[in-house]
């Protein structure tokens, strides 16, 4: 592992480069199918191949079930205005209630997921979730949204998280990106979720700008490269990497003792925040040995 000094200029603060758009909303029709393909590619020759192949299949399910789903309940205009006035995310995950769209999403995901190859533990977990009553499923939904999943039920919650991702991606896609505003360090402006990782984009007008990628709704939001993603500190920030894998680094902060992965699309635009986060578990283990806690949230890395 090497330690890299973050001295590269930040395109988001250079006057002769266009200001990056603050937020980019997800495309439900592409996000999960692209992630499915990325997981499949990463599985080839990987030590975690069986798990990565399972996640590829699960992302394929996320992509396949969307056709014909009911439309999510619309957000009241009053709620949108209140969120704008008070600097809050318009999708209130803290007061989430399952509507017909989410119920159909979860039921369909559980049914279709039964046909994919998966480890025995995942198969047992799927059966438990499928047989759970409405109250049991509601508790699991609350756990995922609160990022407080009990250790003894990690596998079951993967399927709940997958359904919530589909639902919230569909919700976020209907927002007005121009109306979104910063709501805090490491907080998604759409749903209030934590990022999985950050990405240095390779977009034509603003190459190298950094975006956080929401672990729940898939929204990307711009964040200055010279600040810690987790606490906003600009002091004692270093980037750790595994030798030979410089396209993905861990941003470490000595102030909050946290770290967040940074994926560089200028070096490899195939990188996916969720898939490549799982596939670089070795980087997590090495950075944790240095005394840093994981700041990124990934429902497929629960327990790490």
3D architecture notes:
- The chain is α+β, with helices and mostly antiparallel strands.
- Helices cover 38% and strands 13% of the residues.
- It has 9 helices and 9 strands.
- Strands 1, 2, 3, 4, 5, 6, 7, 8 and 9 form a 9-stranded mixed sheet that branches.
- A hairpin with a 5-residue loop joins strand 4 (210-214) and strand 5.
- Mean pLDDT is 91; it is low at 11-15.
Mean pLDDT: 91
Question: What kind of sheet is the major sheet?
Answer: 9 strands, mixed
Identify the quaternary structure here.
Answer: single chain
Please report the number of helical segments. Answer: 9
The shape is globular
Low-confidence stretches: 11-15
Radius of gyration computed on alpha carbons: 19 Å
Q: How far do the termini sit from each other? A: 19 Å
Secondary structure: number of strands: 9
Tell me what portion of residues adopts beta-strand conformation: 5-15%
Structural class: alpha+beta
SSE succession: EEHHHHHHHEEEEEEHHE
Question: Helical residue percent?
Answer: 25-40%
Gist?
With 304 residues, the chain is of the alpha+beta class. The protein has helices spanning 28-43, 49-64, 77-86, 100-113, 120-131, 134-145, 154-173, 273-279, 281-289; strands at 2-4, 23-24, 195-200, 210-214, 220-222, 237-241, 248-253, 258-264, 293-294.
Secondary-structure map:
Layout: E1 2-4, E2 23-24, H1 28-43, H2 49-64, H3 77-86, H4 100-113, H5 120-131, H6 134-145, H7 154-173, E3 195-200, E4 210-214, E5 220-222, E6 237-241, E7 248-253, E8 258-264, H8 273-279, H9 281-289, E9 293-294
Parallel strand pairs: 3-8, 8-9
Antiparallel strand pairs: 1-6, 2-5, 3-4, 4-5, 6-7, 7-8
């Amino acid at each position: 592992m090497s330690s890299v000094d973050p001295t590269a200029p930040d395109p988001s603060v250079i006057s002769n480069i266009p200001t990056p758009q603050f937020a980019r909303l997800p495309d439900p029709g592409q996000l999960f199918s692209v992630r499915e393909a990325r997981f499949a590619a990463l599985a080839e020759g990987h030590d975690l191949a069986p798990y990565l192949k399972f996640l590829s299949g699960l992302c394929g399910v996320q992509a396949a079930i969307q056709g014909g789903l009911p439309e999510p309940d619309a957000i009241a205009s009053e709620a949108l205005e209140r969120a704008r006035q008070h600097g809050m995310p318009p999708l209130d995950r803290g007061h989430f209630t399952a509507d017909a769209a989410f119920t159909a999403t979860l039921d369909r995901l559980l049914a279709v997921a039964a046909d994919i190859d998966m480890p025995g533990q995942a198969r047992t977990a799927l059966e438990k979730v499928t047989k759970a009553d409405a109250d049991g499923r509601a508790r699991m939904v609350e756990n995922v949204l609160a990022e407080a999943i009990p250790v003894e039920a990690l596998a079951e919650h993967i399927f709940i998280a997958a359904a919530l991702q589909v639902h919230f991606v569909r919700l976020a896609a209907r927002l007005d990106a121009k109306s979104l505003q910063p709501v805090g360090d490491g907080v998604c402006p759409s749903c209030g979720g934590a990022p999985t990782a950050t990405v240095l984009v390779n977009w034509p007008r603003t190459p190298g700008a950094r975006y956080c990628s929401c672990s729940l709704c898939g929204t990307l939001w711009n964040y200055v490269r010279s600040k810690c993603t987790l606490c906003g500190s600009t002091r004692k920030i270093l980037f750790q990497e595994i030798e030979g894998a410089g396209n993905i680094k861990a941003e470490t902060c000595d102030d909050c003792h946290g770290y967040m992965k940074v994926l560089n699309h200028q070096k490899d635009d195939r990188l996916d925040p969720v898939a490549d986060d799982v596939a670089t578990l070795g980087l997590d283990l090495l950075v944790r040995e240095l005394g840093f806690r994981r700041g990124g949230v990934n429902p497929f890395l629960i327990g790490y």
